[in-house]
Amino acid sequence: MKRRxxxxxxxxxxxxxxxxxAVVHAAQGLDEATMTAFARWTSLSETTFLLPPGxxxxxxxxxxxxxxxxxxxxxxxxxxxxxxxxxAGGVPRQxxxxxxxxxxxxxxxxxxxxxxxxxxxxxxRSGPLDEPRLQRIxxxxxxxxxxxxxxxxxxxxxGWCAVMLRTAAQVLAVRPDMAALRGLKLGLVxxxxxxxxxxxxxxxxxxxxxxxxxxxxxxxxxxxxxWLIGAGLAxxxxxxxxGAALGRDGHVYIEQQGRTVWVGGDVAACIEGEVEx
Length: 277
Fold this sequence. Notes:
With about 280 residues, the protein is an alpha+beta fold. It has two domains: about 1-120 and about 265-275, Diaminopimelate Epimerase, Chain A, domain 1, CATH 3.10.310.10; about 130-255, Diaminopimelate Epimerase, Chain A, domain 1 (Roll). It has helices at about 30-40, 75-85, 130-140, 170-175, 220-230; strands spanning about 1-10, 20-25, 45-50, 60-65, 70, 95-100, 105-110, 115-120, 150-155, 160-165, 185-190, 200-205, 215, 235-240, 250-255, 260-265, 265-275. Helix 1 links the parallel strand 2 and strand 3. The longest helix is centred in the N-terminal third of the chain and has 13 residues, at about 75-85. The protein starts with a strand and ends with a strand. About 45% of the residues are buried.
């Protein structure tokens, strides 16, 4: 059966500079084995499947797959799936707000000018990392333990933990030992010098998910923002860069309004057509 298909670049207004996403529309009737096989075939960090909502408060439901399995939530698939749903003629129940249903529940999205932004879901796990884990992370990154200046669980579904290094330059210089980091979903963050167009540089390592380094990661940036802003390590609005180590140029726009942290980015369309599934 032929189904409408989009391939998008998320967190970039320029194709091939962000994080690619495959979106299959009208995915009713596809079983999990088929979704998993297609996600492996695309070989992208995530592939999503749009479905009618099960919750009456939602506008659509999405299932999110990596080449290694299904995720309850991910950020760039949330923005890209919403863009694709709107592009296919989706009309939200509430003007100006789109409600996505996924494995973590309902996620709100809104337009911020030309960009879309999602409300960061609550952290499922927070607090400092244990010392044996930190020693392992430092060794896997080729760093001294003292190079890690802050650390935290920032898990909003995928299982992220995060460490802060002294500078963005140090983040970009890391050459990880992926075998040593297996079993971790690890984010790195470091501050750029004052006056830089982006306040932080971020990297994400997911050696078990089929894509060892994720180009630009919405879920990680959502968790990082809640940690950094809450701890006074970042202002309530900032821009994070991610993907430079992979030749990308992703931009993640963070803004806290009240108790909500919004995570925004551009979406660029690359491919549109039909897929036989």
